[in-house]
Design goal:
Distance between the termini of chain A: 19 Å
Structural class of chain B: alpha/beta
Shape of chain A: globular
Largest sheet of chain B: 8 strands, mixed
Helix content of chain B: 25-40%
Number of strands of chain B: 13
Oligomer: heterodimer
Distance between the termini of chain B: 32 Å
Low-confidence stretches of chain A: none
Structural class of chain A: mainly alpha
Number of strands of chain A: 4
Strand content of chain A: under 5%
Radius of gyration of chain A: 24 Å
Number of domains of chain B: 1
Helix content of chain A: 40-55%
Chain lengths: 486, 421
């Protein structure tokens, strides 16, 4: 298959490719490659055991590495996985669901404590003393399954119960926060429900609370969803949209139920919302922007097709992604480099394409904040503003400065690799472009890079010159506008 | 909501043309455009401010019956007199600094601002306040349209956003506004030092200047690079500003210190954006407790604004500055079971500055849930608006910025009684 298509697939379904990864995949045909991206063994994809071993990007901490209980360590672990996972789509979908179900560490830490807040967002069950599963691990486990299942898992996720106040939703005082965002942001969208639906949804989820056992802050407390029947408001709930479909005599009404059976209210609403045609359309449009293009509006034919795949496959995300990645719109050459990279995508791609040996992902954490994407800290439940919104002057400066930081860190590796291309400035430019998989350059761009290499003295290709100009060139290219697109 | 914003940005990119002036002309431009030193500071309280806890109707019995744990006790409010109906009002007890400004006649409180069919969505609500158009929440922002209306080319520092993400209000079709969340990190790094660092900067400038007529998205990002490079040095000059008063260490205070620095250094900015969060108080609102979250928000708001006010006053620049505050909605009148309040409708706006005619504008709601009470909506659940928020914008546009509000807002929202500036 063509290398541009291979790179395109892995920039979108993952975070780019290293030279070695690209070579290993180059002979595969596209459909097989898509299947191997989609279907993976989660155990084989677990790279956590390699953290701190030679040959991988570094992590750095003062004291022991505690990614289940220290949020900064959790961020490093996730970046490590993005760089090295052999199943990059697992991490990509986790990141996308983190954006979609945006839940922030600071509120949970403020209401409880930083240790438990980290656990609720990032704990890996197999290494947590009581098997607590962080929200991001939930996304990693269920992110390619059925959206209806994921939605239910999220509704009962301890981090979400804290984040959108479900833990305080009771019979006498229904809490609207989760019910509103469930409809507005997670499923059907703001134009497709009315205010009375918010009140009804709040009552539906009354009694969907949180039970905490054990000592908080010690790393061993159990945070679990608990349906409290005595806190459920049992009367019927009417909606402006259908819950049960045409076969029902009262399709829009969740019936009055006994308190002990009241959990079913929420299951019915979540199912109805997951299968609502507006959810299908809205998610299909989002899949367009997440995977195909942000510079072109969603193609109606694509949206119709993906929405139909979503509904006819029981809301299965893997089936949706199979259709997305195999769609002609995705594979068309004009779709390449038409997404504004998220800061995490930019950072991980730069590491994979410029180099990472001797670099610590800890040193990417502050730059990511300056670029506008601190992992586990979305600005609000709406997630990060995407697309052009990433490119404030401060955000772009942070990207240019990360490009400088990485090129500086990698300067000796870049010197070693560029010696073979040091004969002429154009050879060096060719090497840098090949490393960074940039789109076809404009003629003026080559002239600008040549002018940079010519500044300060005639070209000799000496080690002393390459040690200055090779990192300088990678800085310019990685910090340029075109490298910000994936 | 983010999706509509993205749709706007996609639509906007086609029309996007960079109007960045060459750096060498910047100071002349700034002088030319800054014929007056007047500036507008817009303060956004993110999350939906609970106006009833900020400006308290402390004699309304329904306020106390509907907010059994959250109501501010009548004995602790800072009394500011009455609205035009004679209803007594008081500020939250942590707003003592603002009370002083009010007493000096330079704080205006505009009651019940909002619009018909107020959105209870943070995202749609914010978009509506940003575009000043309840029926089209995806067009350019009202401040972006103002900047677009200035003679081209517009100096890149004519607008200054103190948060890292340019808000929809400041998004224009032609003019891009720098986002300067931190002055110390608003600097350019290079893998090399000395003259080589200069070559790198020149290289980035050259790459960003390559025309890409067929790729407007690249032109957009290149424009951002150019804006960054054209503003770095002047922004750094503000970084050394210390102020005549001590500013607290919180983000809002530091942002206002930066704004004061930019005003004092006279670098030509006309519109500043300041934003602070934490106002989405669904649970544990803590209006009255010493360490309560809302009490903390009010304390921060008051100390930050007071420091800003005093700093500018000390330097004789208060007359040049108008600050107006808004939030995307007010909150529900009746408290919820989590000692918090859910999303509501109309709220209060504040205006502060040397040219402000202080006092209370408009009337506070009656909180009587009776269906016959015209000041409430949603079955008595929420406060209904009295003053269209666009009337406040119109006043600032006409009487402060000296521009045509009818053209910028797409309609005549001027309200004769709204004489706060």
């Amino acid at each position: 298959m063509s290398t541009p298509l291979l790179d395109h697939l892995y920039r979108r379904a993952g975070f780019g490719l290293t030279v070695a990864e690209r070579q290993a995949l180059a002979e595969r045909n596209y459909r097989d490659l898509v299947e191997s991206v989609l279907v993976f063994d989660p155990n084989a994809a677990d790279v956590d055991a390699f953290i701190g071993t030679p040959g991988y990007v570094n992590i750095s901490t003062t004291g022991p590495f505690m990614p289940n209980t220290n949020i900064s360590h959790a961020r490093q672990r996730w970046l490590f996985r993005m760089v090295h996972s052999p199943a990059p789509l697992q991490e990509k979908m986790a990141l996308i669901w983190h954006e979609h179900f945006a839940t922030a560490f600071s509120k949970i830490a403020g209401l409880y404590n930083a240790v438990d807040a980290t656990r609720l967002l990032a704990a890996k069950p197999s290494t947590d003393p009581v098997g607590q599963q962080g929200q991001i691990e939930l996304f990693r486990q269920y992110g390619l399954g059925n959206f209806s299942d994921l939605l239910l898992k999220v509704a009962q996720d301890p981090a979400m119960l804290v984040w959108l106040d479900g833990e305080t939703n009771t019979k006498t005082n229904p809490q609207e926060n989760f019910g509103r965002e469930l409809m507005e942001l997670f499923t059907i969208g703001v134009a497709n429900y009315v205010e009375t639906d918010v009140y009804a949804a709040a009552r539906v989820f009354s009694g969907w609370n949180l039970r905490i056992t054990g000592t908080q802050g010690a790393g061993t407390a159990v945070f679990a969803f608990a349906y409290q029947a005595n806190q459920h408001e049992t009367s019927a709930k009417d909606f402006s949209f259908s819950i049960y479909g045409r076969g029902s005599s009262k399709p829009n009404e969740i019936p009055a139920r006994t308190a002990s059976e009241g959990l079913q209210d929420g299951l019915d609403l979540i199912h109805a919302l997951a299968f609502h045609p507006e959810t299908a359309t809205r998610l299909a449009s989002k899949f367009w922007t997440w995977f195909v293009s942000e510079t072109e509006s969603p193609d109606p034919a694509f949206v119709d097709n993906i929405a139909s795949v979503y509904l006819s496959n029981g809301t299965n995300i893997r089936a949706v992604l199979r259709a997305v990645l195999n769609s002609p719109q995705f594979q068309d050459a004009s779709a390449a480099f038409q997404r504004y990279s998220w800061p995490a995508e930019f950072v991980v791609r730069a590491l994979k394409e410029v180099g990472y040996l001797g670099f610590s992902v800890n040193d990417a954490l502050t730059p990511l904040v300056n670029m506008g994407q601190q992992l586990f800290e979305p600005p609000n439940v709406g997630g990060w503003p995407l697309g052009q919104a990433w490119f404030s002057t401060a955000g772009m400066l942070a990207r240019m400065n990360f490009a400088s930081q990485l090129a500086t860190n990698q300067k000796f590796a870049l010197l070693a690799a560029s010696r073979a291309f040091g004969a002429t400035p154009d050879a060096l430019i060719g090497f840098a472009r090949d490393s960074l998989r940039t789109p076809t350059p404009l003629p003026d761009e080559t002239a600008a890079l040549e002018a940079y290499l010519a500044s300060g003295g005639p070209w000799t290709g000496s080690d002393a010159q390459l040690l200055v100009k090779a990192p300088g060139l990678f800085h310019l290219l990685t910090g340029s506008a075109e490298f910000q697109f994936v | 909501m983010p999706f509509t914003r993205r749709e706007f940005l996609q639509g906007g990119v086609a029309a996007f043309t960079m109007g960045v002036a060459a750096p060498s002309f910047l100071s002349d431009l700034a002088i030319a455009q800054g014929a007056t030193r007047r500036n507008l500071v817009v303060l956004y309280l993110q999350g939906g401010n609970d106006a009833l806890s900020m400006v308290v109707p402390y004699t309304d019995a329904f306020y106390y019956s509907r907010r059994p744990t959250l109501a501010v006790p009548a004995g602790t409010v800072l009394q500011i007199g009455s609205d035009t109906n004679g209803k007594p009002l008081g500020l939250h007890p942590r707003l003592s600094g603002l009370k002083t400004v009010f007493n000096q006649g330079q704080l205006a409180i505009i009651e019940r601002t909002g619009y018909q069919n107020s959105s209870r969505s943070h995202f749609l609500g914010t978009d509506i306040w940003s575009t000043a158009n309840p029926t089209n929440s995806v067009e350019a922002g009202w401040l972006g349209r103002y900047l677009d209306s200035l003679p081209s080319p517009v100096d890149p520092l004519t607008g200054w956003c103190t948060v890292g993400d340019v808000p929809h209000s400041l998004v224009g079709n032609h003019v891009s506004v720098p986002a300067i969340a931190s002055i110390s990190s608003y600097a350019l790094q290079s893998p090399n030092s000395g003259v080589e660092a200069g070559f790198s900067r020149a290289g980035l400038a050259a790459l960003s200047s390559i025309p890409t007529p067929n790729e407007p998205y690249l032109a957009f990002v290149n424009g951002t690079v150019q804006t960054a490079l054209a503003t770095l040095d002047r922004v750094a000059s503000v970084g050394t500003y210390t102020g005549t008063v001590a500013y607290a260490s919180d983000g809002l205070s530091q942002a206002l210190k930066t704004v004061a620095g930019a005003i004092v250094r006279d670098i030509g900015t006309k519109v500043f954006w300041v934003q602070t969060g934490g106002y989405d108080t669904h649970s544990g609102q803590g209006v009255n407790t010493a360490n309560g979250s809302y009490a903390g928000l009010m304390n921060t708001l008051s100390t930050a604004l007071t420091a800003f006010y005093n700093d500018l006053r000390n330097q004789g620049l208060l007359q040049d500055t108008l600050l107006i505050q808004f939030s995307e909605f007010g909150r529900r009148i009746t408290e919820n079971g989590s000692q918090g309040t859910d999303h509501g409708a109309a709220a209060v706006m504040l205006a502060m500055g040397g040219a402000v005619h202080g006092g209370v504008y408009g009337t506070a709601p009656s909180l009587d849930p009776s269906p016959s009470n015209p000041t409430l909506e949603n079955n008595g659940g929420d406060v209904t608006y009295e003053t269209d928020f666009r009337s406040v914008y119109a006043r600032a546009i006409e009487n402060w910025l000296g521009a045509d509000s009818v053209a910028l807002l797409g309609g005549d929202f001027r309200k004769a009684s709204l004489t706060f500036v």
